[in-house]
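FAQ: What does the model actually see?

It sees only this:
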Amino acid sequence: MTGAATAKGFPHLRQTFLPQPTSGQPEDLILAKVLGNDPISGKPVLQQIYDQLTQPLTAEESYAGMMPEEVPPRLVEPDTAENLEAYFHAQGWTDGLPIVLPTEERVAAMIAGSNRQPHEYVGKMQTNPVYPPLTYDVERVAVNAVMAGAKPEHFPVILALAASCDTALFSSTNSWTRMMVVNGPIAHELDMNSGLGALGPWSTANAVIGRAWTIMSKNLGYAVPGVTYMGSQGNNFDYNHICIAENEEMLPAGWDPFHVTKGFQKDESIVSIFAGLHMRQTNLDGWQPLGFHKGIAARYVQMAEMSSQPGPVIQLACTLLIDPLVAVNMAREFPTRQEFVAYLHNNACYSRSEFFRSFPSYAEKARQGVEPYKTWLESPSDTRVPVLKYRLDTEYGEPEASFRTPSLNIVVVGGGTNAYTWMTNFGHRESVGIDQFRPETPWAPIKGPDAFPYIPGY
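And it is asked to produce this:
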């Protein structure tokens, strides 16, 4: 927090540190922390807060203003390749893996893979909403792309990620990660893997584009563990961010590509960004017609019900990565992807514990004996109650707790060798056009968010 205070113009702001976690902890443990000592200063927490609020500021503490920003030089001094790479690692500019050194020639060649000029403004990025965002131009994005091993033909996709202004290393004490899905002609041109083994290490384009997002999020978004990044355990997905293309060639007849369902044209190249924490593969064979409850799609309803994101804010998000065989099977009952998603929206329900967390006033009704809430409250926590989870048009209105709009999506990926599904708690954040950065596209102002956005469904 010291770094964040400095960046906002209060370098000597008085601070008290209360040990984490506090969310969801028993009352006696929280009271012990509040009535205990600040582990940094060693002073009692409450007395320290009282003193900080009542004692006059010192001359140093009275200073308010921006501290001089340390801007690294555009070029480093010449040295051997081995020494330069060691220097880059020591500065924290890499992901810890070997890099391609970003020489001026390589950076210029990377930029030539787009229709942009080196010092054209692209966007701004921040690791968390507390620390101010950093701005960057095309050249700085290109430096990070070179380091990741990307080629000039990959650069339009990487620029689209940069123009999203979305960091791949978003921080809270939860260990968030990102996923990206590419649609449109460029996926085929770059030989991105959307089929057999798409989520694995079988495609150069998938590997280097995902890695470029990691490295530029560290350098352009100022992701520093203990300063701006606070993910307690981190997330292994952050090495590549599940960088995939959708398997448009194996979509069943009538199913539009994912980006078309978001309002784009089929011949546009688009990268879509998702945020979440985890994923797991179901061991349910998606080719079989029988489900847990009834009907061909019932098992997928259950997946959507299980995919809530934990935390103090209610975040209902689910993106199912279904194999093309599953899509073909679903198309027997749902002629379009949109109808399948609508089915999930209309049939996925809350569990008992989720309902009373979302609508706490109904717990009081249950204690007063009002039905059906009394029966629901007395049921096991995982009991399914007839309240739709991903829709708000119910008699209960919007949830009474902190809440983000639900996000429910389907992406088709895989080689069609087994009808399995990856169940994730990823929500769709935004989709950004790639064609605006292609070298053959006439120059036009960049279309993308201009700040750290709040996206419904995040």
